[in-house]
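User: Sequence recovery, please. Input:
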């Protein structure tokens, strides 16, 4: 079988395994490597120290897996519901918003298993070769590689965009020592659009194609281990795990498809759960309800920290205050600090509402400006 024929078969086998698209990239990443160094030098990675580890292995595949000549890149759609339903869940007065990628089963294991099946299928046809499946499990520049493989272009929000599928998909890679023909990258089609930049609640997309992760809600609710900076808390709204705002406004996502993978469908009603209900989970229930989910990695303390902030941002109510007061003497300093902040904010917002009721016609002061 010629390399060209094998590459065509690999793409067909990938689709048969549930990937929506498969492409092949080379290992040349000097441009993205330079961008990564600049990004790290600015400190925009925050506490994500792992982004600075491993030397140049992240941007030089053959250093991570010696002998690597090509990277087979694959994408799999995960959007669990129609976009209108996700938009309605954002900024809901009492419901929690969880980034849609985390509503179902943890994607890491599923994609890695499918990539392994693809490698074994290739091996059955071409004979033994060196390979390694990767899904966020090692230092890999997955978006630049996917762009080089023709799966899409990196948008101004720094996510990969496919012209026929938007950006609601996962990426996985298969490092191989096969000398396969590489695919052509796609040019950017963002044009003058800046919808993702304008909608970002915290202004994390500081320039087109440049993200300060320290401001990103996904970083603040997932990666950050300590206290969420107080000035940013009101901007989180009801987002307790990640944020999908930049994807929801991207015009290319009108072409996105609802996933066909049952494992990516919402579990435990997390697509419409109330903040009060989730805040009542003790650690045992948290671990039980998040078994097999990407959410479990943040742990129970960060879970309560995030929900406390969301309750502080929720419409003032006796029920919200009671839930917060029940956690006000929590043994964790981190949780107590965020609960006390939320209680003070509930009180302040209630006072603002009372003032608005006394002065009809005046604008409400409870809406927070966006950064």
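Assistant: Recovered sequence (371 residues):
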């Amino acid at each position: 079988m010629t390399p060209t024929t094998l590459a065509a078969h690999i793409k067909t086998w990938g689709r048969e395994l549930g990937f929506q698209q498969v492409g092949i990239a080379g290992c040349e990443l000097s441009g993205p490597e330079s961008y990564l160094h600049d990004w790290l030098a600015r400190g925009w990675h925050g506490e994500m120290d792992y982004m600075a580890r491993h030397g140049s292995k992240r941007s030089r595949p053959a250093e991570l897996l010696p002998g690597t000549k090509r990277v087979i890149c694959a994408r799999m759609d995960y959007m669990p519901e129609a976009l209108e339903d996700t938009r309605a869940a954002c900024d809901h007065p009492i419901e929690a918003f969880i980034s849609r990628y985390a509503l179902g089963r943890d994607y890491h294991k599923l994609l890695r298993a499918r990539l392994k099946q693809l490698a074994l299928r290739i091996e059955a046809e071409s004979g033994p070769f060196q390979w390694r499946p990767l899904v966020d499990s090692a230092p890999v520049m997955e978006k630049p590689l996917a762009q080089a493989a023709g799966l899409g272009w990196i948008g101004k929000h720094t996510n990969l965009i496919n012209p026929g599928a938007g950006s609601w998909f996962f990426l996985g890679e298969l490092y191989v020592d096969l000398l396969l023909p590489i695919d052509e990258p796609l040019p950017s089609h963002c044009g003058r659009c800046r919808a993702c930049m304008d909608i970002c609640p915290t202004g994390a997309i500081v320039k087109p194609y440049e993200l300060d992760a320290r401001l990103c809600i996904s970083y603040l609710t997932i990666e950050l281990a300590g206290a969420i900076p107080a000035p940013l808390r009101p901007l989180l709204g009801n987002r307790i795990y990640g944020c999908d705002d930049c994807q929801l406004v991207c015009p290319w996502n009108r072409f996105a498809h609802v996933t066909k993978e049952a494992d990516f469908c919402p579990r435990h009603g997390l697509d419409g759960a109330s903040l009060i209900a989730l805040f009542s989970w003790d650690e045992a229930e948290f671990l039980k309800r998040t078994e097999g989910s990407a959410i479990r990695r943040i742990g129970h303390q960060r879970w309560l920290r995030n929900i406390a902030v969301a309750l502080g941002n929720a419409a003032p109510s006796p029920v919200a205050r009671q839930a917060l007061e029940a956690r006000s003497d929590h043994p964790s300093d981190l949780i107590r600090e965020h609960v006390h902040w939320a209680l003070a904010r509930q009180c302040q917002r209630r006072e603002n509402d009372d003032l608005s009721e006394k002065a009809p016609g005046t604008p409400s002061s409870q809406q927070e400006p966006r950064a």
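Strands lie at 21-25, 70-77, 97-98, 131-134, 153-154, 160-161, 169-176, 205-207, 210-211, 239-241.
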